[in-house]
Amino acid sequence: xxxxxxxxxxxxxxxxxxxxxxxxxTSGGWAAEAAGDVDRQCPIDRNNxxxxxxxxxxxxxxxxxxxxxxxxxHFLLLDDVGTKVDRExxxxxxxxxxxxxxxxxxxxxxxxxxxxxxxxxxxxxxxAVMAASLCDTGAGGASRWARLPNAINGKVKYxxxxxxxxxxxxxxxxxxxxxSVQGLTDALGLTLQPPAAAIPNMVQSAAPKTIQSAVxxxxxxxxxxxENPVVTALKERGLYKRQIGAGKHDVTCPWVSEHTDxxxxxxxxxxxxxxxxxxxxxxxxxxxxxxxxxxxxxxxGVQSEQARGKARIDVMPGxxxxxRRVAELxxxxxxxxxxxxxxxxxxxxxxxxxxxxxxxxxxAALTAALSDAADWYRYDGRAQKSVRIDPxxxxxxxxLKAAQYDYLPVLSRxxxxxxxxxGTGEFVSKPGYDAASRCYAAFDAGKFETRNQTExxxxxALAKLxxxxxxxxxxxxxxxSAAISAMLxxxxxxxxxxxxxxxxxxxxxxxxxxYLAATITPFAGPGAALKLPYPTTKEEAGKVMLSxxxxxxxxxxxxxxxxxxxxxxxxxxxxxxxxxAGRLLGVSRNVSASTRSLIVGTGNNVRPLGDMTRRxxxxxxxxxxxxxxLVRYDGQxxxxxxxxxxxxxAAALTIVAAWKGAGxxxxxxxxxxxxxxxxxxxxxxxxxxxxxxxxxxIIEQLHHNPDQDAFRDLLKAWHAEIGERAIMLRDxxxxxxxxxxxxxxxxxxxxxxxxxxxxxxxxxxxxxNANRIVDGLELQEAPCSRRNAWRxxxxxxxxx
Length: 800
Prior knowledge:
Blueprint: H1 2-7, E1 15-21, E2 33-34, H2 38-41, E3 47-55, E4 70-81, E5 97-102, E6 105-116, H3 119-131, E7 145-147, E8 152-153, E9 166-167, E10 169-173, E11 178-179, H4 181-188, H5 208-215, E12 221-222, H6 229-236, E13 240-245, E14 248-251, E15 267-270, E16 280-283, H7 293-300, H8 304-307, E17 311-315, H9 320-334, E18 337-340, E19 343-349, E20 356-360, H10 363-373, E21 374-380, E22 385-389, H11 393-400, E23 413-415, E24 419-420, E25 427-428, E26 432-434, E27 439-441, H12 455-468, H13 477-492, E28 501-506, H14 513-520, E29 530-532, H15 538-550, E30 555-558, H16 569-576, E31 579-583, E32 590-594, E33 598-604, E34 616-621, H17 637-643, H18 645-661, H19 676-688, H20 696-703, H21 706-722, E35 727-728, H22 729-736, H23 740-747, E36 752-753, E37 756-757, H24 759-768, E38 773-774, E39 777-781, E40 789-794
Parallel strand pairs: 6-11, 17-21, 23-27, 28-33, 28-34, 29-30, 30-33
Antiparallel strand pairs: 1-2, 1-3, 3-4, 3-7, 4-6, 5-6, 5-10, 8-9, 12-17, 13-14, 14-15, 15-16, 18-19, 19-20, 21-22, 24-25, 26-27, 31-32, 35-40, 36-37, 38-39, 39-40
């Protein structure tokens, strides 16, 4: 019963692995058996073990606990709890079981439901465990052995005075305790950092001519061989049969004459990986323990350096720049590394959600990447030869701080679904790196059905999106249209250089603002939206938005805003510029990042101010009840769209594609500067289908802008009391002392401190609004022999 519960879902054809060892378990090998009659296989007077993984039979149906035959990883094992690992660190994590394996020392197991089916995620999880000091750094690997409860610990040091072994005992048993990867991560307080190598289809190599020019006659660089040297040598000796898996090859054992009856089978060569730097060799016959990879490459005449199959970089005095260029080249050839905004980045994926983000490489990460990509050498005068070294810090820093990169592909943005290319508008339905748009796309193409693109298809898709928002109480049909436009914006955000933010507001708490945001944001990407407080200062806005966009989140939500959308410069740039730039904290260099994220804000009676009025589209909810928080959403739209995201995103893309297929008909509506492409893809298709203008709130805000109203009042009072003559600021304030209308207009401006107009701030305000025209009046800086002279003149305004 213990084993059945602990292993959970074992795939068909796979089996749990047990091992039983008499006496001192430190001697002898680990002979795995497929779990069957466990009481017989594991007598209670022996050291008994269960593997964390299940396995399928290997070559010749042999059952072995090897990485190559793992079917699933079923539980996480923490060892030495109570001695090396502090129990306090595990206070929030309930183990499925705890076994005391020696006096005061325990193993804790945490069942995974469902089991992990890929090795990258296992390594990812175990690396996080080691980083949190919850196990020894050597306690990794997907095929670890855990002790079973009905057993002994036969190590000599744990025997009692009578020579009897320590009896293992089950001291905690919680059979219902099971965790997802994310749930276990949260319970243990881990930080997961998925490796870039886990993401497929990343490689975009440098152009062949460029590579050739870099390696021809080079004394600092030798590229990796086109074919693994051991495979080449096996072929030359007639020992190679076929490839039977990724990095795994069926071969003839060089010592086949020692096999029983000379049977030629059961031998394999494994190419180098993180765990086997020179590769591996396995022969399942009786002499397998004597012939390993060392004996194989010696037989083939392949040096261990050659067997590594890696590029080689020789660090030489006076060749710093050449070494930098070839180091970059090795990263480009390896794949998965990009240049973006003046920095080297990798794309990370979250195995739990499938979402992707970008991450800047720091010095430590770049050092590790360069070490994986190539073997580094330096001449050692004492040894009279070149010796292998770690990538030198100076060379790493030179590459990290390079002004430009010659080989790394440029990454401008991420996409989480099929997308439209900039400029051409071509629809891209293939995941991976798209060189034409410099976009990396991560999605399952088979889940996005967008083949039908007629007007009838668009209307069906619109009805599908309309059902999602059917239970929300919008103030007007225009607000409902704006909500659907927000969905379209999320679906095509990677194709839009700029897009407005969406302000979801209501007059009372509990009106469904955050729930509507949760229904909209999955259109941008599969992961949870990044939630942030709205910045409170210009300086904070600059730091927060740069660090946010460097990660390329699909959606950003300013949830429960307590104030208006203040028009801080960085916030303005985030909405009307394709890129945002700034100095990276802790690093003396400037970087830039794409702003192509869906931005949403929620709050009660929240509105945009100043320049934000043309950058923020408002969606108003209005419940005609005193207790809107009690309203139920029986259709659970946020849950529905999260579970069937691809289906709803495909509906949004169908609307846009059908509009384009119909010839991109445009309804005559007021233009909104900076958002022309957004208007084409997220506004005009809805107008074409008969919905109200989703951007109507921006037009309304521009006409009823409190900032503009205050400026209008100033110009009218100024012109009425002073006329069109030039006047200095100090004289304006003197005149205002006797003119109530002008004085009141000045007090309404953002230039007042302690109920007194600050002349310096008034000057800055006037400079920002110079040559601005409202109701036929224009503020002008006037020619004058003295400084800071201004005037208000009446002009004939041009038609918009």
